[in-house]
Fold this protein.
Amino acid sequence: MKFFPLVWAALWRKRPRTIFTMASIVVAFLLFGLLQAVNVAFGSGVDHISGVDRLIVSGKYSLTEQLQLSYDARIRSIPGVRNVSASSWFGGVYQDERNFFAQLPVDHETYFDIYPEIIVTPEARAALNSTRTGALVGKQLAEKFDWKVGDRIPVQATIWPRKGGSNTWEFDLVGIMDVAKDSERAMAEFLLFRHDYFNEARQFGEGLVGWFVVQVDDPTRADAVAAAIDKEFANSPRETRTDSEKAFNQSFMKQMGDIQMIVTSILGAVFFTLLFLTGNTMMQSVRERVPELAVLKTLGFTDQRVLGLVLAEALILCLIAALIGLGIARLLSPGLAQFMPGLTVNPVVWGQGLAIAVLLALIVGLPPALRAMRLNIVNALSGH
Amino acid sequence: MASTLNQIVAVTAMNIRNIPSRLGTSLVILIGIAGVVGVMVALLSMARGFEATLAGTGKPDRVIVLRGGANDELSSVIFRDQVEVIKQMPGIRKGGDGQPLAIAEKYLLTGIPRIGSTEPANVVVRGTTDKVLELRPETRLSEGRMFRPGVFEVIVGRGAQGQFANLRLGEKVAIRSGDWTVVGIFESGGDVHESEIWTDVETLMAAANSPVIASVTAQLESEDQFTAFKDALSTDPRLTAQVQKEPDYYASRSEALQNMINVLGYAVGIIMGIGALFGALNTMYAAVSTRTVELATLRALGFGGLPVVVSVMIEALLLALAGGVLGAGIAYVIFNGYTVSTLNFQTFSQVAFDFRVTRDLLIQGVIWALSIGFIGGLFPAVRAARLPIVDALRAQ
């Protein structure tokens, strides 16, 4: 640590060069932060919103297939099943298609027992029980659209008209949903309303349901329960496919397919480009300092210590730049999250970014550091 | 004036002959800019390809009828008795059989894994009739034969076949109520329908236990008939229906994804460009500083400041040009014609499309490269020309 001032001074030996080099690394980590945040939105984010004790029962051929509501009781009677809640996709539009958010009719009596992560006051639950047209919304949605409990929210149906053919459904807001952890936010940012009301009031499709959420007694036996559910409905006109909630969410995200691959290749190209840029600067900076390094060695610095000094310089350069880049990405991410919900620069992204910074420092720092270590004092002092 | 020009030529030639001795630093500009241009051209070619696929779908004199309020075919429900009403609307051209050239189609999704994956992706299955080739004459069977009604047979679009598993001729694919046999492959000029699977509508309705259809696509006598058709449709009390010209419908269903890909391409390109700019600045400052004495000597000999500036700029621009051409070339070789598929979240279904590295994208990439080279060379060049000769000669 006592050599820090020495390393620091060496780093800023040519100020403009260091600043430019740092700026290009900052840019690379800014891109890394933003693109990884996108990947989080698509990928690893689902881990936080998936319960180990929950299964999703959907149609065998597509999750857009409809199942029978009467399956509820049959699933409930399968050993190992603790609780079942019917849900459907409503697919409505609030004011404008761009205001997209999900509206889900759910079995209000069981849904919140299966999703303990969603925080709802007992008053709100009671109000939903007593109001057929009642609805709950996520906290951020309520803020975005300035909704207050007691408001009436009109939603235009795109799939399900009401009896009589009208597309307008009006819901009475009876409560706001919250979550304890930010990483679970995506579990509550819906408009939830009563499936029994939805089922009765729609023009067609009565008795059908989109999917069931099933809570199992013992997560270690989840696979067996899932197999038992699918067996129960095998060879019926509406067969089922039961997945763990995590597998379900992941396969949903994997639908984006090649986009993720493309994002990863961009990052590859960015860092490959950067390697050349920074590596060259480091080489140059050591080349210029050959006599100085020789003086250090004359003063009694060991080979390893000289190696360490040069490596430390690369490390500090890369880490500072990475921190700035990721910091900027963090500042920008809330703005971008409006376009892509779930996008965050989370601790995992920070960890990955800093690990890559260390790796980058090693790759670009090692060749010049080795060169510095192997310097022959006499040649170096005489030969500049 | 002539002497300034001579000086420029002389100094520039000397600089360029010198590049090999500064190969490492020069490569930084070249590779840095090649990386930026390559990534940007690749991303924008994806947007171009997606646009071409969507823009190439449908014709302005063909219309698609959905339930009033439905956003797309997936959310639209039309009842059987309404179909006959729609087919009798004015302005529909008569087909070869003397009947209105209009087909009521079913639209549903089935989960088929991508080739090499196990996770199901939402592939469109369209229930139609054998009249579809007359309704969509841009479509032709390139392999096999048409599906037959009453049996579980499908024909598969070329794009879907390239992306999803088990869709080759003779293979079986699970759609509803079991497996269906692929009996034909169709092409339709790379449009959205090439990402779909087609089969007989009645067979599909029975297999899916769902007696409703999604849309009616009709060929109008001419585009001018649209208003009359629309008025008749929207005033008919037996219907709650809306109609759009096909190009309008497909454009509106791709807006969000298209915007996203474009924003991604330009945002990444600009951010990376800024990074490469710093790299170029570094390189050119280094190139100038290693030759401080040399440049000062030239000026002591009577060379002006302008030739020095111009020569440094030309060097930067040449390196940038090489980088730009290299990057655009790599993007072209790797990505042109490369097919990907993704979920169009507005329709909740998979669409396959080709990357298109068009000429204007290549030009755009080279211009971008030259802009980075210009800014990256300007400041070092001015600095080189401004250094007092005496100080510069004493340097080092």
Summary: The first strand of chain B starts at residue 62 and ends at 67. The mean pLDDT of chain B is 90. Chain B is about 50% helix and 20% strand.
